[in-house]
Prior knowledge:
By secondary structure, the protein is α+β, with helices and mostly antiparallel strands. 18% of the residues lie in helices and 35% in strands. A hairpin with a 4-residue loop joins strand 12 and strand 13.
Amino acid sequence: MSIYKDLNDMNIDLEQYEEQNLTNFEKKKWEKRILKKICKEKPSHVKKYLGVTATVAMIFSLIIVTGLISPTMAATMKEVPLLSSVFKFTGDLGLHAADEKGLSTKLNISATHEGFTLNVTEVVYDGTRVAIGIERHDKEGENAKENLSEQMSNIEFLLNGEPLNHTNFSSVFEQPSKDKNSVILEFADLKNQGGSPFPKQFNLTLSATITGISEPFKMDIPVSDIGNYVNLQPNISRKYKNNQFTIEQIMLTPITTSITTRIALLDKSTSVDFREGISIEVYDEQGHELKLIHGNGRRETNKGNSDLIMDLRLHPFETLPKAITIKPYIHLYNDYPKGTYQEDENGDPVIQYIPELEITIPINSQE
């Protein structure tokens, strides 16, 4: 039995209850009753959280048994860290939305070695990326000063028992979350770059090594595609010098905006090659820009002049836009020190837009 899971799974209709005040005697009575009930639970994860959950447990028991709660208390309880998703505390608006909209699957899957517990708290997959929330619990507190992401290494995944590697999935991306004890791991398939797509449902096995612990941590994670996305294949191209820039696919989900581009050399004998350096900015019809989360790219073949295919994953649009504008640009570099970005007066890299490659795509059309 997990207190964390019980609290998250609780569904309460607050409108049917009226605000009432408890006397000091009643408060003490309920506190003793809840503490007595919790102390009967012997698993280590209950004892570990006893100090921080006693008050929360008491509050929830008061709700269940007596229905005593005010709207102010309800709002306050929603912000209690224990009840909050790992996804909620990241700067990734898509994962924040996954928590707020109930799209992520809450889990309590753990492995423990030498007093150290690694716990998978939630997962979400929207057809573009898989994101996994992970927390650590160390009864000795020896790792309090070190970030969990710094402790983890040799991260490997199996999909339905088959290894995921550079031929069928992207690199593993890490995002910080609410504190040093949590991290978010993400990856995507390479279906737009010659790899196989992930199934709609699959079992994912995570294996990772923790610094100072010899035995790897292994956990099986059930994953399901949330669906609910718009998939466009515009295949619109623009040309600049000897480069052809094509938007091959756009996928819009409540969690991610995924854009697949292809950059080809029209005259492979010339040296004007921007393939490695072209980046993009993405806007809706009102000029709101999306923030880049991460991406990956590879050449279509091993030949140096083959097409470069990029999968970029950005924050989701708040509402479905009427049109998307993609503005390619390149960074400008210094001659000395060679290879460093030019910077403006604010210390930001200087970029140069390429208007010849700009593309606007209506969402209600796939032209």
